[in-house]
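ok so heres the complex, three chains, lmk if somethin looks off
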Amino acid sequence: MIEGIELQHILIVTTLMFFIGVYGFLVRRNLITILMASELILNSVSINFVVFNKYLYPDALQGYMFAIFVIAIAAAEAAVAIAIIINVYRRFKSVNVENVHEMKY
Amino acid sequence: MDFTYTLAIILLPLVTFLTIGLLDKSMPNKLAGVLGTASIGTSFLLACYTAYQYFFVYGMVDGVYQKIIAYHITWLKFTDTLHIDLGVILDPISVMMLLVVTTVSLMVHIYSNGYMHGERGFNKFFSFLSLFSFSMLGLVVATNLFQMYIFWELVGVSSFLLIGYYYEKPSAVAASKKAFITTRFADLGFLIGILLLSWYTGTFDFVQLTQTSAIGTLESPAIATMGGISFMGLSVISWALILIFMGGAGKSAMFPLHIWLPDAMEGPTPVSALIHAATMVVAGVFLVARLFPIYAIAAPDALTVVMWVGAFSSLFAAIIACTQYDIKRVLAFSTMSQIGYMMLALGVSKYGGENGLGFTASMFHLTTHAMFKALLFLGAGSIIHAVHSNSMLDMGGLRKYMPITFITFGIAWLAICGFPGLSGFFSKDEILVAAMQNNTPVFIIAVVVAGLTAFYMSRLFFSVFFGKETKYHHTPHESPKTMTIPLMVLAFFAIFAGYIPFSKFVTSDGAAFATHFHWNVAIPVTLIAFIGMGIAYVLYFKESTIPTKVTKALKGVYTTIYNKFYIDEIYLFVTKKILFNIVARSIAWFDRHVIDATMNGFATVTNYVSNSIKGLQSGQVQKYGLVFLMGALTFALIFIYLVTK
Amino acid sequence: MNVIIFYILAAVILVCSVLTVTSRKILRAATALMFTLIATAGLYFLLQVNFLAAVQLMIYAGGIVVLIVFSILLTHHMEHQFDLAEPKKAIPAALAAIAGTVICISTVLQFDFTSRLAEQTTAPDVKLFGRAFLNYGEGGYVLPFEVISILLLAAMVAAIMIAKKNKQ
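and the predicted structre for the whole thing:
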């Protein structure tokens, strides 16, 4: 608990961060920047976990644990995603999502 | 006594069928012939042994022949009482049929070795013969209606295969289709009958169905109930049995389901002898005999139907037979007529003791007829083999060229005409006695048919072996030994089968009774037969112009009869003109323009809609993401502002 | 003091987030992302969850950002500038994001958190996390811990498999 800061303030910050991430996810064309936007989303959520744990259930550990696991999974996800991006780049000579639409009707 | 070995009688031909059928061309023809003949020969010996064991050693208990279940497995169990079994039942008629079928089948197998020699599908022919023998034997030992129905259909299939044996010939193909479809149509009635009967009685089992008590009533209470329920003026049990008889009439070529039998002569002659003279066509008679206690006790109406159908078919076929020129067709109509005789005998019979004379007579005639009719067909085959034609017009004076065929054929001819001392004489006499005792109109018909039979058989015999001197392309010669030996064996049976005291063995209730020879029937009927033979002698023994004069004088009548009373044409008219043109065409129109159109409409609408919305599937991840987000937000709104308040 | 630091961190987080998703140069975007993540770690320090803050710094700010920079180097020219987002795409996305923000923030503000606040006892230290991770009794995390380690291993193998050049 941060003295003088209310829970809602932090939540407003993370909400903003989350939707900035969402905006980036929907607008960016480059696969790597989309990946970055999704990191923002993940990050905002893990802050939420920590903050709820800290403010509402200080004796428990679940929130922190979730945050740690989110970080671990984000690492795994980033590794695989980047491998895929490199492969896509090799195949299409581009990492632009609009060029990758093999799954069209 | 363990009768399980009887299973081998049935399974041996099946094994042979599979062996020859699977190896087919990789097996030498000679080996296939020998194998087929040996297996049916073994079956024949086993059947003889069974008959000895059954009739003379173990079958009779307290003066009554018992029904012995020799082998039995439960195959499909629906409920505790209703199940379809497979098994072997031994009772007088099934043992008798085992003997008849294996005898004729063995003779036909031996004969075919010579007759089919050098044919392309020799092995195929023998495998089909074995299949047929298996099916027919399975049919006669069936322990329940459903097993009988299964083998009934198998018999139909093998008949179909064998009629269509010369499948390059369009007429053979047409004939096999006709036979199959006609009998199949009749079997629909059979199936409905089986279902009706089993619905009320809750069983398919023959033993349970035909169980009778000491006072000559059926023990199954359900049948009495069925007798109580009436439908369109007849009790349900009568309906069920009439429908079952419809199946029998189809297989036994009774009017009006007889149209397939003359055409079935397209098959090889040994097939005609085996299937369409001696065994399969009497399956209908056997079926009625099998269910005879129910017919006689619970449904006399149905038995009356059997009687009149039999009597009419018998007369009808005999009249047509007088005009035909194709030697095999004459025999086919003769077969139909004689089967009508058997049906008629069953129809006039009652259940139990001496009242069951008709039943015994029918079974007796079935046996003797199988022998002499098979002989006639095999003899005809021998003639056709020598002359290479089916038409009586191409034959004449053959007695000089084919002495053995001449003598054996002559014996069969005398037997079917009812010449005193030969087998046909005795069995026919019993039928006539039974008819006289019970129903005078039917008796008169039977006597007329006896005269007609003598006439047309003599006509056939005289014009083939005597008559005009015909010029042949090459001199006809006697057939090989493999063909003449069966003729001689069957001739032996045709003479002596009549001396079997049938009423001691095969009776409606299993108890033996004594028959007396009725001179008052035998003498006039024999005289009538002689008159028939005499007329034929005058007309056909020497070349004469009288037959042509007679046909000219009776032109209209003659043409009608020659064309088999136009029954085929009526069928064609009904199916082609009415069913195909009017009914089927309108239904087809409905199918095409209403049902198909509806379905096409669905397809078109679906196609149109999917074409117009396929743009949504753009392959752009971000568009999907946007839509997903909007959906999620909408749900969030719904839950927050609508659900919680 | 805490309040001021929090507002500074919050400002860094928001500004850098916006930069991450709007910057026209990709390396700049990656740098902004790194600052966002570091500021998040600072937030964790402020919340006295030191272990988590350290993990955040090492894995996120250290590992993942470096990975992203690597991939940028492999696939881009440094001087390449992105086009501005086309309005056809940006406007609906922005509207959706704003709508989402409004819904979430209004929900957060309406919810009564004050009555649920609990008193802080002790700040969790590394020892506590360590015991929790390896505890297989009640409240222990040994199973998820092992599962995530297998996941990491699998991801590593998968990454190699995917990125490997095909021999053909």
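quick notes: Chain C touches chain A through 83 residues (CB under 8 Å). thats all i got rn
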